[in-house]
Each structure stands twice: as C-alpha cells, then as structure tokens.
Amino acid sequence: MKEQEFRNWLGKRLWKGEPLTKKAINTRVRRSLRAERGLHGLGYSQSTLDEVFDDGGWDRLLAQLTTLASDPDSDMAIVRAVVPQAEDPRGQLGNMIANLRQYGYFREGRDPNYSIAGVADEDDGGGSQADEIRQYVVENYIRPARLRGDATVSLTIGALNNEMGLHMAWPNICQALEGRLFLQLANVPAPAAEGPKLSTTRKLTYSLATETESVTKPKQAPTNLILYGPPGTGKTYRTAYEAVLLCDGTVAFDESPEGRQALLDRYRELEAEKRIAFVTFHQNYDYESFVEGLRPETGDAGDNSAGFRLEPRAGIFREICALADQARTRPAQAANSPSFDLSGRRFWKMSQGATGGEDEVYDAALANRYIALGWGGTIDWSAERFLSFDAIQAEWLDKNPDDPTPSNWTQTSLFRAEVKIGDIVIVPYGNSAFRAVAEVTGDYRYAPEAEGFYAHRRDVRWLLTLEEPLPLDTIVDGNFTMRTLYPIATKRVNLPALARLIAGGEDATPAEAVADEPEQFVLIIDEINRANISKVFGELITLIEPDKRLGMVNALSLTLPYSKKRDFGVPANLHIVGTMNTADRSIALLDTALRRRFTFREMAPRVDLLGTVDGIDLRSALTAINDRIEYLIDREHRIGHAFFMGCQNREAIDLVMRDKVIPLLQEYFFEDWGRIEAVLGEGFIGSRKIAPPPGFEGDDRDSWFVRDPFPEDAFKRLNGGSSAGASTE
Description:
Blueprint: H1 3-11, E1 14-15, E2 18-19, H2 22-37, H3 49-54, H4 58-70, H5 76-82, H6 89-108, H7 127-148, E3 152-156, H8 157-163, H9 170-178, H10 180-186, E4 192-194, E5 203-207, E6 224-229, H11 235-248, H12 257-272, E7 276-280, H13 287-290, E8 292-297, E9 309-314, H14 316-329, H15 332-335, E10 347-350, H16 359-368, E11 370-373, H17 389-399, H18 407-418, E12 424-428, E13 433-446, E14 456-471, E15 485-488, H19 495-501, E16 521-526, H20 533-537, H21 540-543, E17 574-581, H22 592-596, E18 599-602, E19 612-613, E20 616-617, H23 618-632, H24 650-668, H25 673-680, E21 685-690, E22 701-706, H26 714-718
Parallel strand pairs: 6-17, 6-18, 7-16, 10-12, 16-17
Antiparallel strand pairs: 1-2, 3-5, 4-5, 8-9, 10-15, 11-14, 12-13, 13-14, 19-20, 21-22
Helix pairs in contact: 1-2, 2-6, 4-6, 6-7, 7-9, 7-10, 11-12, 17-18, 23-25
C-alpha cells in the first residue's frame, strides 16, 4: 500500500474538529497493513491493497469483510487470516473495514474530510457501534419486512436510538444506515431520506429487493478455492454454500434444517441451469476426460461417409468454460433480461445444411432470419391442401416417380404442417452439440430463387447463435439422430438451462464482453487430490490463475491440441472449488504448481454443532476421540462432526461408532487394535488372552474384538469417567 501518501492524507483529516493524532494515524495504517497481509488468506491473487483497488476488487473486498464481521464464527479460518489474534473478531473487523473505506477514499482522490463535506458514510470512531446498529436494523427491520412481503420499510433515527438504548448516537446511526456497508449488508438501494441530516427526526425509507437480488454488483474476481480437512467435516456440503454464494453474490439461508434445505434447493436450481457443475477426480481421470479428447462420432458429416469418425469431444471443464464465456460475452440486454418463457412450446431438432460441408446454408439462414429445408425438391407446398400428409406424398410421387425417398414427403410434411409459429427450433452441430436456437415467427413459404436448393423456408427469430457449439446435454438429454427434422419431447429439454441461455432480446448474437457483471459459474471438483493433477490440467495450469483469465488484465489463451480451437481461455466468471481429504494416505500430495494457484481453507471438526443425545455428550466424545487421534497420529486424521450430525438416539450413535468410526480407525492404525482401544476406551473395544497352539512355545497374545452391544457406560468411559471394570467378553 501507499503508506506514506496515506499517512499524509490522514494528517489532513479532522475528527470532531481536531486533526487526527499520531497514534490514530498509526492505528489506521496498521489496520490497513494487516488487511493487506491477509489478502491471500481471503482468496485474492493480488499481494497489495493497491492491486486489489486497481483491478476493480475494492467493493468485493469490503463486502467480503462485512460478511465475515456479521458472523465471524461461520468461517473462523478466514477470519484468522486477517485478524489472527483477535479476541473480539467482530469489533476488530469492523474497525478494519472503516479504515479500509478511508484507504479507498484516499485512492479515489476524495477530500480527507469527506464526511464534513456532506458525504454520508461511516466514520472511524464507532466501528463496533456502527456494526451493532447495522446488524440490529437488518435483524429487526429489514428481514422481518421481507418475510411479511413488504415493499418498503421506514424508521426514524431518534426512535431507533431509544429502542437500542443508545446515548445520543443519532449521528452514528445516520452515518451507519446511509453508508455503503449497510446497503450491501441489507441488500437495499440508498434510502429516501426526510428531515435534517444527523438528527433525531430524520426518517429513512428503504425499498426492499429480494434476498437473492444483488443491489450493488461489484465485479467478482475469479476464485480458486480448495476446502481441505479430515473426513466428516462437511467439505462437500460446504461446496454447495460456496457455489451458491459465488453464483448469487449472497446466501440468505441460516443454519437451521429449513435453511440448509433451502440452500440445497437453490443449489439444484443453479445446477439445472448449468451454472454449477460437479465432478469427482479419481486415479484414472485424465486430460481427455476433463478438457477434451477424441471420441467416436456418427452423423451428418460433409462427406456422408459410412461408419464412425473420431471427433474432438469437450470434457466437463471445456463445457463449463464455453457456458461461462457465452454468459460473459452475451449482450447486456440479454444478460439482464428475465428468462425466456418456454411454457406451452413445442421443440424441434432441425439441421441447417450438413455440418462441415454446407456451412453456406447455415450462414444464409442466420443472415436472413429463416430456417430452410433441403428435402421437397422444387415443388411449392404453399397450397392449403398440402396441410395433409397424404396430399404431400401423392404430389411428390406423381411429380418424381423415379425418386421414392420417403424423406421428401415425411420431412416436408413436418416442416409444412406440423411446425407452428412460436415453436422452438434447435440447430445441431453433429449429434452431440448445438449451435443455435430459434423461435418460429412465420408460416411456410417457398423461395423460387433458390431453385430447389433449400427452397422451403420459415421465418424465425434467432434467440441464440454460438461461435463455439455447446454440448447438447446442456439443454437436451441424450444425443440427436441423423434425421433433418423431428420433434423433441419436452421432458428431454432442460427448460431452466435453455431459458437462461436464450434470455434477452431479438437476435441475441455474441458480442464483445459487456461491462455489466455476467452470470457466475462454478466447477466443483470433489477429491481433487486423487488424480494426477499435472496430467488432468495439462497446459491449462497457467490459464486458471485469476489474473490470466479471459476478461482480466493479463488474460492468456492457447490452441487446444485435439480440436485445434484457437484462443481458448478460462473465463473470469468461472470459479473452481475443490475438496481434499487430508486423511487419505492412498494419494500423493498436490502438485506444487496447482497448490500455488489455489487458496486453501481448512475445514476442521466443529463440536459446537453437536449436542447431547440420550444423555450422551457428543461434543465431549468427539473432542476426546480427536485429541487421542492427534496425539497418536496427527491432526489431519481427526474425524468430523458430520458422522454424528443426524443421530437422534443412542441406537443411531452406536451404529455410527460400530459401522463408521471403528472401521475408519482400523484404517488409520493399520489394524493396531491396542491403539484403537487407546482412542475409544475399553467400553467399545475388548480383549482376551489366547494361548499358543499345541506344539508352539510362546507367550499368550491379546485377541481384540468390538463389543456387542456397547455397555451403557461406554461413552462415560470414553469421556474420562470411571469404568465399572473391564470386561473381556
């Protein structure tokens, strides 16, 4: 950071009519430097505050810290990245945010005494109180009003001051509730204000947006995140939270069972829209599966050759990159429009020329806003009698007795009589991809100037045209067949994904990257450390760096090896979230190059999420187990709270211990039952002495077994209580 220039700027600032003291200046600089040191822990690739500011990430940084300050316990690992020794993280984060706002104002070139000049924003002196005010209003005014379905919510400053039991705090209340931090936290626009500034009679009225709407949409920086920790710590579940947060910009769901279900429902909605993709790595996973490889293909090749051919097939990573890039480069009006209404529509597959051999047919259709059929010869089928299938067949056989190819009447009949205005036509690219979507806007017409070469036409509105085809399973289940035209069953169509893709105005063709924040996409890689990372990512290892993404200042691209696609890059609106089980000893450590490009966030066991069930203190039990595991092995082999989260009675807990915990410990300790007994105690593990077989000399040996059933006091013994005496049976 520009420390000296910031000090000079602060030296000109007045607080309550007096210049800031040297101590106050030092405190503000120190807090800003602490935030700078924590940038990597927060997931930023930049090393300085100035780089974050220059890259357009300042608002995101403030919003992220505000979220942490509102609930530090939700992700204490990240909190410790910026305030490692804080006894009161909420207060310290609040003070840090206030100082960072000032550093942002300094970088903007704002007058040091902006608040005196009438700029409504929080000042330094009451960070903790301002946070308290903001949180109180959200919990007691904003959120209840939304639940009631109110369009607005109003409050008076003096009444709020008395309600909160504050002493003459109305200046702080006004500044806190009219500042950017509150608007972001409450997800509301700036309020309509009545009455004098900083007074008890001032009235603020907020217009309420929905919880999932983002009022302020700072440009998101690409996220590369790996959640790591022992088994059962909720890593995979946490990916759902992170994915929704990255896609929506906010997560308005609490930790209740209902809130968790609502979160998963939203996750599934985004998954259906193809904005979230999920893949699990394994030892045999490779580049050809992840990025692209050669696959056998049949279909409408230009040479009409028999059999199959090897065609480049996109893997899941290239697929979601294509979707993200389409969203990144779509016109602003399309990106900001509501989803296209597909209710009551019929869907058709219709080729526009043979792929790779008749591109001029497709290009002419796009340019002139029609779809064309190549079957049907030079006959004009406009007459009303040709609404009949039999009439078309009879006419064709009468005029073309030497060409009894059925497609000349079957395909023509569909195109002439069955396709209706308002129907949706999907133009394929081979059998497993598509390149355009159109809405039929006109009836059948014949173009005599075409002289029988794709002379049968219907006017359309092109809803989506793609420079790079997208995988068909993005919008349609299964592959296409070689037939030119046929209906697609509605149940095969992914309506949410298709509606999102074609949202927008007429002829939504690709454009240059738009200034507005595009839709965000997330690729979740479960068990990311199980595969050979260098083999899977290949040359893309550099492209996934945040500053090398498409749309960023140092964007890079390359030519893919199989498809020869030029200028392939990873869009900035694609985020990668991975999980890594630290206890899995069957796998190698992560590639160092990949480790450098990801932020690592530990997911530790959370005993605070457990309670007492049927007299068993699960918090104490899990703590005791993990302390002993850490002593005997290391902290990476602890077990997580998720093992016991669903247990409602003693029977369920016993089943978890018998079927999950004990087998896991067998794996950990390589069947060393003495150590397993040291972890769980004699209430779960028993032993007896066995003598050597006849004819063998030696000492008696221990024979270990899992008790069945577990004694009533097994958990008491585990938690350090006295035992009733060890049983050997």
